[in-house]
Amino acid sequence: MIRVLLVDDQPLIRSGFRALLELEDDIKVVAEAANGEEGLALAKEHLPDVALVDIQMPVMDGIEATRHIAADPALAGVHVVMLTNYGMDEYVFDALRAGAAGFLVKDIVAEDFLHAVRVAARGDALLAPSITRKLIDRYVTQLPSTRSGSGLEELTGREREAVALAAQGLSNSEIADRMVIAPVTAKTHINRAMTKLHARDRAQLVVLAYESGLVSPRNS
Hints:
Elements: E1 2-7, H1 11-21, E2 27-33, H2 36-46, E3 50-54, H3 62-71, E4 79-84, H4 92-98, E5 102-105, H5 110-121, H6 129-138, H7 157-166, H8 172-179, H9 183-197, H10 202-211
Parallel strand pairs: 1-2, 1-3, 3-4, 4-5
Helix pairs in contact: 2-3, 7-8, 7-9, 8-9, 9-10
């Protein structure tokens, strides 16, 4: 059973998402919150698998709530998915850097929404290649270089190669095809890299890959 926490200051949005989620046999909404502060408290209380968190809210916004969740070892199993009214706004990259597993636009179709919740619950990032490219174009190119102390020296050559391909938006199967290895081996490389770089999930791994200089917008 996938346990979901809804955090949004608009009751109508929350009720709509709840209605969709509770039609599914494998998903349960465990709590709702109207702001980030409430959401953080409920995350600690219920330990959901997925927290759907609005970016802009009163009292504490979604990015700050995500930052607190990501910093708490007791909440390591909580995968935060940010909710936004826009396909790409100025807060998205900040949300990913704070520890979000990805983001969804609120007008997403029901089938894609449910799929996204299941993807997030598995610990995979909600970063399609097209979204990754937009992030690179708008945000990553503006970042200062932070190559030193990145932890990349701990990765093996194959792990670095897998991370670089993941940063381009490739799935484990696509990475396996490129590297001519089994999908399970590709997944192992990614998981080991996440552990070594202390990345909560695949989304943070992508951010680290660009911030560290492992991948640059020129070769993505």
